[in-house]
Amino acid sequence: MLTRRQLLKAGAIGGASLLLPAGLRPGILRPASVLADAIPRGTLDPTTIPKYVTPLVIPPAMPRQAAIQNNSIDYYVIAVRQFLQQILPPEKPATTVWSYGSVAGGGTFNYPAFTIEATVDRPVRVKWVNQLVDGGGNYLPHILPVDPTLHWANPPGGAEGRDTRPTFTSTPGPYTGPVPMVVHLHGGHSTEEADGFAEAWYLPAANNIPAGYASVGSFYDFFKAKAEGINGATWQPGSAVFQYANDQRAGTNWFHDHTLGMTRLNVYAGPAGFYLLRGGNSDLPPGVLPGPAPKLGDPPGRKYYEIPIAIQDRSFNSDGSLFYPASREFFDGFAGPYIGADSSDISPIWNPEFFGNTTVVNGRTWPTLQVEPRRYRFRFLNGCNSRFLILKIVSNALARRPARAALPFWQIGTEGGFLPAPVQLSQLLMTLAERADVIVDFTGLRVGTELYLINEAPDEPFAGGVTERDFPAADPGTTGQVMKFVVVTLASHDESVRHDRLTPNQLTPLGAANVTRQVSLNEEDSSTLEGIGPRAAVLGTMSGGTPVHLGWDDAITENPELNATEIWEMFNFTEDAHPIHIHEVMFHVVNRQPMGSTRVRAPEKWETGFKDTVIAYPGEITRVKAKFDLPGLYVWHCHIVEHEDNEMMRPYRVGP
Ligand SMILES: [Cu+2]
After folding, report:
1. Contact 253, 273 (CB under 8 A)
2. pTM surpassing 0.85?
3. Residue 370 contacts by C-beta under 8 Å, 6 or more apart in sequence?
4. Which of 30, 275, 442, 566 is a plausible cystine mate for 116, CB 3.0–4.6 Å?
């Protein structure tokens, strides 16, 4: 069966455009030389990787330094480093990855990172150190192919050319210099200097930074001065000190890189971790939900019933290394001319999307979790680059899709904490960066029962719809499987409150909006080569019902007043769904409406809490409402990180 995207490709190659559904613009046709291989692959065949031979790793709590300021602030020094980790099963080679760890204690560098445990209204201060250097203090180049033709951090550009789209007279190879990084706490109600602005990156403090290179991004010094003025912590070379007030609802947040034009690679290389915020009025008292989760000082072998689960797709080479495409040709067969040759405007390395061919969960391919016949709390994160997930718990991993759910999920929370009431779901649709806080009840299952977490979303961009009706499910043999649960003897007393008896959670309404603004989601094809695209994905505004395309460097158009409550109407003119993330705020999903229709659709039940990321479907207006209560410079963007890296991100400012 041809996938929707393959159909588009077929139309472009063979002129078989009569096959295309009515209404598709010719500009979105993808050129391609082949129909097969929808999933880019490394040299390691994913079907040769044994599944369910390694246990799920439950990330321990991240060690702290001594608390500071009269024990009023939790303090961490966290570095990003390069190291080897056994992501594949033991008989396969280890993988070179990057991730974060505490410089306070050995053995804490892990992909994904150990979890930061934070408490509402108790500040956390983190000194984030870029230690991508070798033993001699010289910088390490990127482990993945960096496209230097995007609008990106561009350290070789120096003070003038950093954070620009450089020009080339011939098609360049990948950038192999020192790696810029900056950390964003996703879901954080962060002040601007601590938000990880995309132009506030910094190189490692390496011995051999080439002369003329910018060692920091355009906004690093501005935010450094501001941060040092606020809390007195100095930012040493190769680091930044971010303080998070945690003055927000309890919830499941996470941290990851946010460097301009490099996020897709810096995240794919590994650095990311959970940041779990507990306490305050919006949390439930201890003991109501299944627990415990890992905490500092736990003895080895402690059993956990609250478990964060980060799901990511990756591809590998047979030597264990991570595979990520090194040429645009991988995406659609377009072999040039690229930027720097014959006036083309197509980047030579950047791929518009990336789909790995294995599933990695908490840093291991296809792991197994032993579960007792009781309730568990899982905090799911879709940490993929481009892949939407439709998760389901089934008894046969290879069952025909769509498979029948063996157990339901009780979703209790989303990005911004608990939902008004638990929602029973047979499947979890999760876009990039979304979090789902769920209860799964294994009570009553016989010891030895085997269940599987599977994925029925497509191995291609998602546009909405139903598995096997509107798109083919992910390959049941590889990316259609996620992890396994094996029921073992009950070794605990489950005192958690039954999910269907949890008291409803009061959400403080945001009140009426002062302003409604219209923004747009767009794709751009080559302006020099007919029928080649996409060249980039861009955001923008609306003018008289038509989209105005705006890039990262265009003047700010979204400028809410401080403490304004606004509705943002997101018009999606592309063929795919995009996960839109607005920094600083937690918003409510108001509704969705097909363009040209008066029919308005209420948000899904599982979207009725506070959120920071929302699915904007093609051809629809997605409305969200937020209160912008911190002043300063932030960003909003698509969280398909390939899109984010190539113009689908805009700065916005709150207040003057
Ligand atoms: Cu996007």
Report:
1. no
2. yes
3. 55, 485, 486, 487, 488
4. 275
